[in-house]
Amino acid sequence: MPSEDDIKLPKRLVESSKIPGIEIFDHTIVCNRDYLSMKGRNLL
Question: Would you tell me which of 10, 20, 21, 38 could form a disulfide with 43, CB atoms 3.0–4.6 Å apart?
């Protein structure tokens, strides 16, 4: 499960990347045996 900071940081990156026109497609968290796609969970 992503932490509150795991959710806040990518959202801030997406917002700040709009200024120079950069598009962020996903943010992935990788753990020992699993991964989480923020976009796949509609958190981005």
Answer: 38
